[in-house]
Amino acid sequence: MGLIKKLEKSSDLVNGMADRLGIDMVDIIARDPEQEGPKLMRAIMRCSRCEDQGGCTRLQAEHDHLDAAPDYCRNKEDFDRVLKG
Question: Cα Rg for the chain, rounded, in angstroms?
């Protein structure tokens, strides 16, 4: 898979996970784009190195809502931090 396709898929997975967790990424980035934009890019890069993107894709296809990111998620700590506020 090419780099652009891989990053596009990773972006979709990060945003999909955030949606299922009830995290409004647009609102977070809009509040502080200079700080939050790079955080989103780092999350996408971490996701792009995940060895189980297929599992994440299936999980998201099967669930509209999740209480927490799965343990294998490379962005779990960040998602948990946002959820705890």
Answer: 12
